[in-house]
C-alpha cells in the first residue's frame, strides 16, 4: 500500500470496498489512487496502534462507506440524450461529479452516529476519573472549524450540529508515519506528510463532516483560572462562543466531508453579513443563535405552564376577512373575481368566538399581520402569546399574566431583580407585597398618572426623574417658554451623578443639536426651558424663573450641581395619546446620557401595569381606526368594555371621557402586551359600532359573525396578548426585534433573504383578476455586500 493515509480517491466504489475490508480485517487497502477528483472524498488516518488505544469498549462500529450502493452511479453513466434534451442539457461530466458527490454524502449512515450527549456525559465523568487504558471508537458528526497544524500533530476543532459545543480532533502525524506499511525514506515520509496536511487542511471551516476515531482523555487540558472546569467557554474564530469539552479528544481514523464550502467565502465570528446572507449570520453569531434558542425555550415552557393551568391551545385561521379592527391589513387576493382574504391583525375575534363556543381558557402563539410603518421594534408580521379566559375579569387575567411572566419567563432568562415604583428592589418570585387590593404583584399605574409623572403611557421609572407641575412660575417665564395662553408648565430633573455643570452644559447643547431634537424646538406648544444647576451662577442657574420660583424649584427637586432641569409647557387639556413632549425629552435625554457614559444604564427591570386608558381617542391622521365618522377611534380595539361603575350615557354624550377596562404590561418603558375585558353582549357591541364610532352599516355587517356568537349566551370574558418578539428582545437585551426573529423583514417590509415581496407576473395578475395602476415602483434589490476572498 502507498501510505498509512488514504489519499483522495476518484474511485469511490474501490474506496468503499477498501474500507469494508479494513473494517473486517483491520488492514488498509492495497492501493488507492491519489488523484484528487472528487471534492467529497474522505480522508483517513491509519489506525492508532499504541497500547493506550487498544479498544476495550467500542461504542459502535464504523459504518461509513460500508455500503456498496455507490455502484448505482458508475463513473460514466450512460448518456440519455432524450432526457438531456428534455431538461436543457448540462454537460454529462458535471452531472457525473454532482451525482457522485451527492451520493457519497448520502451513503453516510447518519443514524449510526454517537450523540454529543454521550460525549458530554463522558466529559463530565472523565473530569474526575479519566480512564487509564480504556478507549472508545466512535463516529460523530459536526462541523470542522479551526485547524492548528503543529510538527507532531494536526489539531482541529469539531463543533456539534447545534454550534454550541466543541471537541478537539487530533490527527497525529507520528501515528501516521509509524503505521505506514511500506516504510519510505525520510524524504518520502515528508512528502506524504505534506500530502496528508494538504488533504486535511483543505477541509474548509464550516464543512459538515463525519469523524470516526478513538475517544481518549485529553492530555493537555486548557486551564481556566486555577481550576479545570467541566466545560469551558471558548471563542471559536468562526462560530463564536461555544462550550469546549476539555476532558476528552478524538484521535481521528477517518474524516469525511459531507458537503463543500465555497472557496473564498469568509465567514468568521465578527464578519458582518447583510440580511441576504442570514444563514451565514446564524453560522457565525453566537448571540443570534442564543436568542433564537432562548425564544424556543420560552415558547415551550410557557406552553407547558399554560397547559398546566388548564389553558387549551387552539389554532385559528390565517386566511381571515377584512374587518375594521384598527390597523391596516394585508390582503390575500383569490381567484374568485373581486374577493380577497385579509391576514389577521390578531386572533381577537376568533378567540372571543371560542369563548362563546365553550372553550373556557384559550391560548396560542399567534402570527399577526399589520401593515404599519416599520420601526426597530415593529415587524409587519409578528408573534403574540395570545390568551382569553371565560368568566374572567381583568384582574384574573392580569394575575395569570403575572404568574407567567414572573414564574416562567424571568427565571428562564436568568433575570432576577425587579424594581418597584418606590425604588425598592425585589427578587422576582418573592414579590410578596401586592400593590392593590386585587392581589396583583406588580405596581399598577393609571394612565393619567403615568402621563403626569412620566409623560408616557409606557413609563420607565428606573431612573426617577419624575415630572412635576410648576405652574407657580411667573407669567413672564411662561411666556418665554410658550405663546399659549395659560399653559400647564411641568419640569423634571435629570440626576447627572456628579457631572460638573460645564459637562452637563455641553451635553445639553449636543442633545438639542441632534436632528431628532428639532421637533422640540419647533413644538407649537412651546420650547423646552433647560437649566443646569450651578451654584457658581446667579440663583444657581435658575434665574430665568424669577427669585421666588427658583427657590420653590430647588425645594421641589433638590438638585445637585450639574443636574439638568427641563421645563416644558403644554395645553391645559386632558391627556391623550402615548406621550407628552416632556416625556419624550425625559426618555431621550436619559438614553443619550447613558450612551455617553454620564449615567449608568439601569441594572434592574421595571414591570408595571398601566390601566384606566380612555376607551376612545381622537382619530390620528395616520391610523385607519374603525373607519367610523365620529372622529374618534378605539384606544385598544372596539371590543373593549368600558370600566364597570361608570355612567354609560357618557358613551353617547362624551365618549372621550369614558374609561376603558384595558390594561397594558410595560417593561422597562416598553409596552410588551395589552388586553381588556370584552363587551360580551351583542347589542352593547352594536351600540359601540353604530352609535359611538358611527360606522357605516355595511362595515358593521363585517362583524356580524362576532355579533351572532355573542348573542348566543356568550359568557363574560377577558384576555391579553403578549408581544412575544418584543419580550424576547427585551429579555435578551437587544433593541431590535429583528435580532430575535429568524427571518425578519427589513425596510419596506422586505425580506431580502428570499426577495419578498416579489413582483407579480402578468399571468398572476390575470389569474387573480388584478391590475397594476400607473405602472410599478419596483426597484431591483441591491446586490448583497459580502466578504469574498479571491
Ligand atoms: N388582540 C389584542 C391585541 O392584539 C390583545 C387583546 O386584547 O387580547 O392587542
Mean pLDDT across residues: 82
Biggest sheet strand line-up: 8-11-12-25-24-23-20-15
Number of helices: 22
Report how far the terminal alpha carbons are from each other: 38 Å
- The total strand number stands at 25
**What general outline do the C-alpha atoms trace?**
globular
Please identify the structural class as seen in this structure.
alpha+beta
Bound molecules: aspartic acid
Tell me the major beta sheet: 8 strands, mixed
Low-confidence stretches: 1-42, 45-81, 175-191, 429-434, 780-790
The level of helicity is 25-40%
As a percent range, the share of strand residues is: 15-25%
Describe the structure.
The protein is α+β, with helices and mostly antiparallel strands and 790 residues long. Helix content is 29%, strand content 19%. It is built from 22 helices and 25 strands. An eight-stranded mixed β-sheet has the order 8-11-12-25-24-23-20-15, with helices on both faces. A hairpin with a 3-residue loop joins strand 2 (136-149) and strand 3. Helix 8 (286-308) crosses helix 10 and helix 18 (682-692) packs antiparallel against helix 20. The radius of gyration is 34 Å and the shape is globular. 38% of the residues are buried. The model is unreliable at 1-42, 45-81, 175-191, 429-434 and 780-790 (pLDDT under 50). Aspartic acid (ASP) binds at residues 346, 348, 637, 674-676, 719-721.
Amino acid at each position: 500500500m502507498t501510505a498509512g493515509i488514504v489519499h483522495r480517491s476518484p474511485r469511490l466504489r474501490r474506496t468503499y470496498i477498501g474500507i469494508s475490508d479494513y473494517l473486517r480485517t483491520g488492514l488498509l487497502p492495497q492501493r488507492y489512487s491519489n488523484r484528487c477528483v472528487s471534492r467529497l472524498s474522505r480522508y483517513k488516518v491509519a489506525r492508532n496502534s499504541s497500547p493506550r488505544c487498544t479498544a476495550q469498549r467500542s461504542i459502535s462500529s464504523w459504518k461509513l462507506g460500508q455500503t456498496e450502493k455507490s455502484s448505482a452511479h458508475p463513473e460514466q453513466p450512460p448518456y440519455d440524450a432524450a432526457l438531456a434534451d428534455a431538461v436543457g442539457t448540462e454537460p454529462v461530466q458535471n452531472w457525473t461529479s454532482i451525482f457522485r458527490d451527492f451520493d457519497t454524502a448520502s451513503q453516510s449512515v447518519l443514524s449510526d452516529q454517537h450523540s454529543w450527549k454521550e460525549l458530554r456525559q463522558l466529559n463530565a465523568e472523565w473530569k474526575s476519573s479519566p480512564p487509564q487504558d480504556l478507549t472508545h471508537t466512535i463516529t460523530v458528526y459536526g462541523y470542522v472549524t479551526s485547524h492548528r497544524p503543529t510538527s507532531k500533530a494536526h489539531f482541529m476543532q469539531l463543533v456539534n450540529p447545534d454550534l454550541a459545543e466543541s471537541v478537539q480532533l487530533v490527527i497525529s502525524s507520528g501515528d501516521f508515519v509509524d503505521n505506514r506499511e511500506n516504510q519510505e525514506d525520510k524524504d518520502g515520509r515528508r512528502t506524504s506528510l505534506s500530502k496528508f496536511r494538504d488533504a486535511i487542511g483543505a477541509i474548509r471551516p464550516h464543512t459538515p463532516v463525519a469523524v470516526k476515531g478513538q475517544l481518549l482523555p485529553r492530555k493537555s487540558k486548557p486551564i481556566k483560572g486555577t481550576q479545570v472546569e467541566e466545560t469551558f467557554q471558548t471563542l471559536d474564530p468562526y462560530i463564536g462562543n461555544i462550550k469546549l469539552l476539555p476532558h476528552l479528544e478524538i484521535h481521528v481514523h477517518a474524516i469525511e466531508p459531507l458537503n463543500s464550502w465555497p472557496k473564498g467565502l469568509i465567514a468568521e465570528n465578527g464578519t458582518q453579513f447583510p440580511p441576504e446572507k442570514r444563514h451565514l449570520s446564524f453560522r457565525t453569531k453566537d448571540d443570534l443563535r442564543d436568542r433564537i434558542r432562548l425564544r424556543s425555550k420560552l415558547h415551550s415552557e410557557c406552553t407547558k405552564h399554560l397547559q398546566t393551568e388548564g389553558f387549551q391551545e387552539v389554532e385559528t385561521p390565517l386566511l381571515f376577512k377584512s374587518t375594521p379592527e384598527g390597523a391596516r391589513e394585508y390582503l390575500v387576493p383569490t381567484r374568485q373575481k373581486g374577493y380577497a382574504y385579509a391576514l389577521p391583525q390578531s386572533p381577537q375575534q376568533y378567540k372571543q368566538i371560542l369563548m362563546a363556543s365553550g372553550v373556557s381558557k384559550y391560548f396560542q402563539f399567534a402570527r399577526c399581520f399589520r401593515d404599519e410603518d416599520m420601526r426597530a421594534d415593529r415587524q409587519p408580521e409578528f408573534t403574540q402569546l395570545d390568551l382569553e379566559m371565560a368568566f374572567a375579569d381583568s384582574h384574573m387575567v392580569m394575575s395569570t399574566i403575572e404568574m407567567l411572566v414572573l414564574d416562567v419567563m424571568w427565571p428562564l432568562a436568568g433575570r432576577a431583580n425587579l424594581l418597584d415604583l418606590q425604588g425598592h428592589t425585589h427578587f422576582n418570585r418573592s414579590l410578596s407585597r401586592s400593590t392593590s387590593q386585587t392581589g396583583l404583584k406588580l405596581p399598577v399605574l393609571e394612565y393619567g398618572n403615568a402621563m403626569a409623572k412620566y409623560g408616557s403611557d409606557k413609563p420607565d421609572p428606573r431612573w426617577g426623574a419624575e415630572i412635576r407641575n410648576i405652574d407657580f412660575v411667573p407669567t413672564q417665564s411662561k411666556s418665554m417658554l410658550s405663546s399659549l395662553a395659560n399653559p400647564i408648565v411641568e419640569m423634571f430633573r435629570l440626576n447627572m451623578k456628579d457631572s460638573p455643570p460645564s459637562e452637563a452644559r455641553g451635553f445639553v447643547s449636543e442633545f438639542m443639536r441632534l436632528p431628532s431634537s428639532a421637533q422640540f424646538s419647533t413644538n407649537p406648544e412651546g420650547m423646552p426651558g433647560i437649566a443646569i444647576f450651578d451654584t457658581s451662577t446667579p440663583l444657581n442657574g435658575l434665574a430665568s424663573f424669577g427669585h421666588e420660583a427658583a427657590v420653590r424649584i430647588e425645594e421641589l427637586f433638590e438638585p445637585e450641581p450639574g443636574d439638568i432641569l427641563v421645563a416644558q409647557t403644554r395645553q391645559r387639556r386632558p391627556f391623550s395619546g402615548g406621550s407628552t413632549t416632556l416625556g419624550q425629552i425625559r426618555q431621550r435625554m436619559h438614553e443619550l446620557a447613558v450612551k455617553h457614559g454620564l449615567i449608568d444604564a439601569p441594572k434592574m427591570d421595571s414591570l408595571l401595569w398601566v390601566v384606566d386608558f380612555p376607551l376612545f381617542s381622537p382619530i390620528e391622521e395616520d391610523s385607519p381606526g374603525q373607519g367610523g365618522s365620529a372622529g374618534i377611534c378605539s384606544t385598544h380595539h372596539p371590543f373593549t368594555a368600558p370600566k364597570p361603575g361608570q355612567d354609560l350615557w357618557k358613551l353617547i354624550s362624551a365618549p372621550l371621557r369614558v374609561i376603558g377596562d384595558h390594561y397594558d404590561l410595560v417593561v422597562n418603558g416598553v409596552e410588551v402586551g395589552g388586553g381588556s375585558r370584552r363587551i360580551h353582549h351583542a347589542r352593547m357591541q352594536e351600540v359601540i359600532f353604530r352609535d359611538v364610532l358611527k360606522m357605516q352599516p355595511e362595515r358593521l355587517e363585517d362583524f356580524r359573525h362576532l355579533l351572532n356568537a355573542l348573542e348566543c349566551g356568550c359568557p363574560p370574558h377577558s384576555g391579553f396578548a403578549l408581544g412575544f418578539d418584543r419580550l424576547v428582545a427585551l429579555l435578551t437585551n437587544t433593541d431590535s426585534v429583528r435580532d430575535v426573529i429568524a427571518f425578519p423583514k427589513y425596510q419596506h417590509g422586505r425580506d431580502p433573504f428570499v426577495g419578498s415581496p416579489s413582483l407579480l407576473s402578468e399571468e398572476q395578475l390575470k389569474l387573480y383578476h388584478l391590475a397594476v395602476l400607473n405602472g410599478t415602483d419596483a426597484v431591483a434589490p441591491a446586490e448583497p455586500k459580502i466578504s469574498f476572498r479571491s
